[in-house]
Design a protein that fits this description.
Elements (H helix, E strand, L loop, with lengths): L1 H23 L20 E2 L10 H10 L4 E2 L3 H6 L2 H13 L4
Parallel strand pairs: 1-2
């Protein structure tokens, strides 16, 4: 007799809980519409020296492109050594890689 009563109470509590959950259930809210994020005022810049990567400006463009950087910080001494044509080439490679 005692087991029947316990089984009945377990079933009644489970049914009441299920009905209570169902009554309070609300549809999931729809996600907010996707809006483009505002443009940042800065870029993610690769500066080889501070992160311990050997400073090779010729490879900096390729590294920045491969690892998702948006700009590079070339060495001033490297830029000073370039001829006008080499500087034009270097800036062209940066533009092709979409780097600032």
């Amino acid at each position: 007799m005692r087991n029947e009563r316990r089984q009945f109470l377990k079933g009644a509590v489970a049914a009441a809980a299920a009905m209570g959950l169902e009554a309070n259930a609300q549809p999931a809210p729809s996600p907010p519409p996707l809006t483009p994020s505002p443009r940042r005022k800065f870029t993610i810049c690769l500066s080889c020296g501070p992160v311990g990567v050997p400073d090779d400006p010729a490879l900096a463009i390729d590294r920045a492109r491969r690892f998702g950087f948006e700009s590079i910080e070339p060495s001033p001494s490297f830029i000073a050594k370039l001829s006008d044509a080499e500087l034009h080439d270097y800036l062209g490679r940066m533009r092709e890689a979409n780097l600032a």
